[in-house]
Amino acid sequence: MRMKRLPLLLHTTIMLMAACISTANAQTFSAGANHALYSCVSGTPRCVGANSNGQLGLGNYTSHTTLVPMSGFNGITAVDASYSHSLFLKNNGTVWAAGSNGNGQLGNGTTTGSISPVQVGGLTGIIAISASLDFSVFLKNDGTVWAVGNNLGGQLGDGTTEYKTTPVQMLGLTGITAISSGMFHSLFLKNDGTVWATGGNYYGQVGNQPLYGVSTPVPIEGLSDIIAVAAGGTHSLFLKMTKRFGASGLIFTVNLVMKMWGIIIMMRFKLLDLQE
User: Would the CA dihedral through 153, 179, 112, 82 be positive or negative?
Assistant: First the structure.
């Protein structure tokens, strides 16, 4: 008799989806260092947690232990929470930010923090956002990538190591479909399945590059057919999907490729295994 086995990976995904449904009809959610954000069906995001830097965007510094709606702030389709600042993507392709701004990560042309959301300057057509420790990355609908904030490791990818208070375009990137930012580096997935990176490389997180890293995006060697990327603080993760025909049917295999300490480690999960 044939049996379908759901792996732990898929089960975990289902549990997360259930948690979303019970949490203010959340569409997307993001956990920062000490606060969390939820974008909701209504378009009004909700937030909870620490607010010592105004990262909840409520117009004050009051922290909350239960979910609070960001009243009057509408049309939000995605959120991303970092250490002490938050990003919000609106349905018109603009980006708004709140919280710490010591390195210009809010992108409004200043280094002054804000307890209410301010618009990130000069950005339209944005489809994805990524908030890091003290910089922010944005993906446009034309496949280009823009960034603002701390640039000490070259993580803004503009060929310099100077921080920026307004977004700059990353050099040489086209056809990008996904972005992710770590503590000092940024990752980019291209539409051809390759992965590019820029920034600090202290633990090998941007590939076979100098220890001090790179200030313009470069391809990570040895990666192809990648379908998702994720940047940790000082490591990088890549998801690779392959498929083959087995004796009992079509078998999909997910390869999780982890690059940490300059070594590529492979882990494999079967998403669907039809067996007699």
Answer: negative
How far apart CA 99 and CA 191 sit, in angstroms, is 33
Nearest to 181 by CA among 160, 162, 205, 163: 205
First to last CA, the chain: 5
pLDDT in tens, 94-128: 999 999 999 999 999 999 999 999 999 999 999 99
Q: Measured between alpha carbons, how far is 91 from 126 in angstroms, rounded to an integer?
A: 9
Q: CB-based contacts of 251: which residues, under 8 Å, 6+ apart?
A: 243, 244, 245, 270, 272, 273, 274
Whole-number Å distance between alpha carbons of 235 and 201: 9
| Mean pLDDT value across residues 166-171 | 98
- In the chain, the amino acid numbered 125 is G
Q: Does pTM surpass 0.70?
A: yes
Residue 76, classed as helix, strand or coil, is strand
Q: Could you identify the residue written with the tokens 């018109």?
A: 92
Report how far residue 176's alpha carbon sits from residue 145's, in angstroms, rounded to the nearest whole number. 7
**The tokens of 268 are what?**
């494999």
What does the longest C-alpha to C-alpha distance in the chain come to?
A: 65
